[in-house]
DNA sequence: AACGGGTGTCATAAG
DNA sequence: GACTTATGACACCCG
């Protein structure tokens, strides 16, 4: 039985840019050497920094600095730590970006291990180090017009060096990159986007990461390599909309149900329907449309909780690909006005399935993917979806997640909260890759993205969606599907949003027969789910009413018990009064008629409310006060009756006067 | 075979 | 006006 109380919706606004701003401000402070309270000496160089930042990123510094009582301490690092390895780590601590090259990755890794830099080992080095240490391994696409081979630091953002196979290295100095970035980008987003090379040089940009960014740096033709940190626990960085993870839009809640939480930063940019849903507190479905996704990654976080829902922070942390989420941030985004524009006209932007986000993604970015890029992407994705190849289209059971995460320690504990049903295709690493690899129809990926299934989904909906049509219906439906030869899975018809549905119809150019069939399927499916919801509500209502009935019955029982108890009390009072009357009759008025009248009085006429009042010790006339026995009885009765209850009281005296014809009684009677 | 529960579908009203 | 949702009514299936 479920007796649901009134639902209370709690909305939480979470800024997606706050922590990023904080981090960036700290970086600015560090560059200006303001408020720096610690000096780190590495080899023969000194770095000013903030102890809190270092301690929060490094176990080593945590230990050293928290045990340091002196103000403005100087931490001299041992010889194991080199400038080459430490400087990128320090940069990482303040920017969440790790700039590395093939040449210094090992050194960075060594220093990171020594210093206990969190969030780097498993998320980055375990794969990258062997990748680069074995000479580049697989077939990197190396074309190049590199200008020099000088040692350079890879700059994730704004432009990134490309670790290539020895030769053809990109001659790019970090400062050069920075300058180029600052020249071509705004403060917020553009500099975080990977440059787009205009030639066929190797470019490991994981373009899907940036697919939603509308701003790209047009590269200078140099090789670029950017591996945005994608660990779930990585600190916020100044990554731009590129880091915006599609999962944010489907992350949720909770528990319950439905998180609930749709990471919709800028509520104003949200889809009207989704805003409506939020306002109505009806569903917690994710913004399934792409424009919603994009809207949802704008700054801020609107979270609707109901019950033990996942917090918006949790939701953001679910994103395995968004390093900004560990701090609850989506960087980006604040400065990406184009994103909101995207959400406003999805027909323009998302007209083509194959070209999902194509308008947003530079063609070069998506078109050319090196094998290394693919490997890195798949590795990173597999880190989150093990056995990806076999289950690309199937939701992974949570058990498998647990197992997979167990292998990586606690690194992926947060995956338990992830809805993996839609995960692989929603993985920005794999979305485009899979579209290249799998010859799936466009509807596949689209519908995956458009599907409304998500952890945010209400229990009702999730239950309903899990309930497939009956076997007969399925068989019949499959036959009809074969007849009409739909170019997309029929299962997705009902799960798509209307907008996506219309887009698909527009795109697929269905015949009249197909159109009718599809619309019929969608209508019946919607109605089926509505009927299920309706029946569930009915049952809930019945259960609730049954609970109320039980409650009322118990109350009735209790009242009956009270009633019986009061009856007993009445009987006691009667007996007491009878005894009292008898004692009075002995000395004062031993007239049988009076006694009988008194007996009648107490047995019938006297209001129980009077008799039930607390029996104050009456000042009854004793045997020696026989002359005023009756008046004492009046006094007693008056004293036992509250003032308000005396209205209905007929005193024994008056009663006797009315009922007893006596001539020899006391004058008081 | 009758019966009750579950479910899908249709029709309709309301938003 | 198209669409979604809720709901009553009906039919069907199944145990």
Automatic annotation (TrEMBL):
Transmembrane segments: none annotated. Residues 36-102 form the BTB domain. Keywords: Coiled coil, DNA-binding, Transcription, Transcription regulation. Residues 522-580 form the BZIP domain. Residues 137-199, 431-472 are annotated as: Disordered. Residues 542-576 form a coiled coil. Residues 153-164, 173-187 have a biased composition (Polar residues). SUPFAM superfamilies: A DNA-binding domain in eukaryotic transcription factors, Leucine zipper domain, POZ domain. GO terms for molecular function: DNA-binding transcription factor activity, RNA polymerase II-specific; RNA polymerase II cis-regulatory region sequence-specific DNA binding. This is BTB and CNC homology 1, basic leucine zipper transcription factor 1 a. It comes from Cyprinus carpio.
